[in-house]
Amino acid sequence: MNRYNIEDTIYALATAWAKSAIAVVRISGKGCIGTLSKAIGGKVDIRNKPSNSAIYCRLISPVDGHHVDDIVLTLYRDGHGYTGEDAAEISCHGGLQVVQAVLATMAELGFRQALPGEFSLRAFLHGKMDLTRAEAVNELINAQGMTGRAMALKRLNGDLFRRISDIKATVVRIMGTVEVQLDYSEDEIGEDLTFPMEELEKAIEALGTIRDSYNTGRLYSQGAKVVLAGPSNAGKSSLFNLFLKEDRSIVSAQKGTTRDYIEAMCTVGGIPIRLYDTAGFRSFSESEIEEEGIRRSHSLVEGADIIIYMVDSSDMGAMDGSVLSDPRCIAVLNKSDLKDVDMDGFVKLSVVTGAGFSELCSRITEKLTSDLGVSDESALVIENDRQKENLSRAVSSLQAARLAVESGLPLDIVSMDIQEALEALGELTGEVTTDDILDRIFGSFCVGK
Ligand SMILES: Nc1nc2c(ncn2[C@@H]2O[C@H](COP(=O)(O)OP(=O)(O)OP(=O)(O)O)[C@@H](O)[C@H]2O)c(=O)[nH]1
Ligand SMILES: [Mg+2]
What we know:
It is a single chain. By secondary structure, this protein is α/β, with parallel strands linked by helices. It folds into 3 domains: about 10-130, Gyrase A, domain 2 (2-Layer Sandwich); about 135-215 and about 380-430, tRNA modification GTPase MnmE domain 2 (Four Helix Bundle (Hemerythrin (Met), subunit A)), CATH 1.20.120; about 220-370, P-loop containing nucleotide triphosphate hydrolases (Rossmann fold, 3-Layer(aba) Sandwich). The chain has helices at about 30-35, 95-110, 120-125, 130-140, 145-155, 160-185, 185-190, 195-210, 215-220, 235-245, 290-300, 320-325, 355-370, 385-405, 410-430, 435-445, and strands spanning about 10-15, 20-30, 55-60, 65-75, 85-95, 110-115, 225-230, 260-270, 270-275, 305-310, 330-335, 345-350. A 6-stranded mixed β-sheet has the order 3-4-5-2-1-6. Strands 8-9-7-10-11-12 form a 6-stranded mixed β-sheet, sandwiched between helices. The protein is flat, with a radius of gyration of 29 Å. The protein starts with 9 loop residues before the first strand and ends in a 6-residue tail after the last helix. It binds guanosine-5'-triphosphate and magnesium ion. Guanosine-5'-triphosphate binds near residues 234, 238, 280 and 337.
């Protein structure tokens, strides 16, 4: 790749740029341990220390010898570390001044600041992981809910890679049969060889299943937009606070309390939810500000995945029928502690006592997952656009091969379609790749990963 020179030794802060107890600076590159030894004070000689050893030592400036920090240095040799090349991790004190001084020391040693994703790129280039695992690293770091985390971890452990490799082996076998028939005449082969249609069907189905898990993966990684809407004073802000388990939005008996909408993240049934508390709908408003708030509520409702339409069971006059009939809507009758009303299709809730809250949560997860097929964290699920595109390409090429066989087209056409599917699968795992693809994948990682 042009942007990355893998001959350099690179360094980066692997932990967040914020004050903390410990910070970790990562270093990687051929011969980096020898160079790093110039910045280790006292009698410690790290050049002879074995791989995976952790050494408590003093970091000094290689320029003027001043004491930078007391550190724990972990060394990785012979491909033992993340990147598959000589590498080290400095655990230093987590103050920002300390971190800055440690990073400056790395620059003094002649090391270069790593680009985003450069450690993972090196891990890929040194064969430590395939592309699906490398992408899973990023997906795991960005996971917002427990289910999304578990799904990313399965991919990191190689489940996706192994599944794709198995299917690919089948496709290679099919290709073999086609090639034999292309290379030899019918007389030489005899009548034993026929096209393995059943195997092809199985491969198409297996790849299609993984491709179709994308929507589930997206939901658990990106989450859904849930908007609390309804007449003023219904208890929307109270419910918002209940979801967040904190007193976040102002609650008051006065109508028109919430003006500007408020948004926050939470998880419901393992699904990351971006939750919006909005200004209550009223036919008349007391100010221009409230009117603008109501206008914003309507536009949030338009873009919602789920609308929780909330009504006060003791004040049911003002219901908006158009929202209630919307398929995205979950209707809620709140304040059931004050008045116990049963209405078909409505979830009966009391934000004050918590009664009905778990049913509301189940209704949200049901609605979000009902069309997905898989929502089980043990399932193999993808969440990545690139992987989905490659799988779609592989599926359509194999479908084209099937059609070609069924239509009695020449075998070299069948062979071309199967070849195209194999290329798509090769790109998926990274066996076949280009600088452009690598740039796109690793460029989206954070620095230090
Ligand atoms: N008894 C009872 N009171 C509730 C319940 N939920 C909310 N309230 C009360 O109802 C009043 C209005 O609650 P809010 O949460 O501010 O209502 P809102 O829908 O956000 O109102 P606006 O922001 O004005 O649109 C407050 O006094 C709450 O304490 C409930 O389940 N039971
Ligand atoms: Mg409110």
